[in-house]
Amino acid sequence: MSVEGSTGCRAASRLSTGLLSVARRLERPVAEPCSHVPSDMTAPTPSGDGCEDCLAMGERNWVHLRLCQECGHVGCCDNSPRRHATGHYRDTRHPLIRSFEPGEDWWWCYVDEAGFNVPGAPPAPSYPT
Ligand SMILES: [Zn+2]
Ligand SMILES: [Zn+2]
Ligand SMILES: [Zn+2]
């Protein structure tokens, strides 16, 4: 009868839980720009003033908004009930979003799962306040 032997398993599950909570908090700059950032960083024309997909459903209950750097799709963040920005990435594989919040310029890459600022990038558009 031994009570030892499961320490490694417990450590592993603690580690993955820790990584998950880190990933959830990463909606802010933490790293160097990734390789997906294009040389032409001109911001696309936003699809609208709110989450395109929520508005299509007649809803406006998002928390924060994100802008797809590739096509200008405006989607709601992962703290919003429907997470349309992430849904847009799953549908299109467009890797980069920028914050669509006033005063925020950071980028997020879904492929690299990294947030960062890009020195010299034009300011991110945002919805009117
Ligand atoms: Zn990337
Ligand atoms: Zn939405
Ligand atoms: Zn897109």
**What's the CATH C level of the largest domain?**
Alpha Beta
Residue share in helix = 25-40%
Overall, the morphology is globular
Annotated CATH homologous superfamily of the largest domain? Zinc/RING finger domain, C3HC4 (zinc finger)
Ligands, ions, cofactors: zinc ion
Q: Can you tell me the residue ranges where pLDDT is under 50 for at least 5 consecutive residues?
A: 11-23
Task: Give the end-to-end Cα distance, rounded to a whole number of Å.
Answer: 66 Å
Largest sheet composition: 5 strands, antiparallel
**Overall SS class:** alpha+beta
Explain what this protein looks like in three dimensions.
The chain is an alpha+beta fold. It has 2 domains: 1-30; 32-129, Herpes Virus-1 (2-Layer Sandwich), CATH 3.30.40. Helix content is 26%, strand content 13%. It is built from 3 helices and 5 strands; from the N terminus they run ααββαβββ. The protein has helices spanning 7-25, 52-56, 84-92; strands spanning 65-68, 74-76, 96-99, 107-109, 114-116. The longest helix has 19 residues, at 7-25. The relative contact order is 0.20. Mean pLDDT is 85; it is low at 11-23. Bound molecules: zinc ion (3 copies).
Question: How is this structure best summarized?
Answer:
This protein is α+β, with helices and mostly antiparallel strands and 129 residues long.
SSE arrangement:
Blueprint: H1 7-25, H2 52-56, E1 65-68, E2 74-76, H3 84-92, E3 96-99, E4 107-109, E5 114-116
Antiparallel strand pairs: 1-2, 1-3, 3-4, 4-5
The structure holds zinc ion (3 copies).
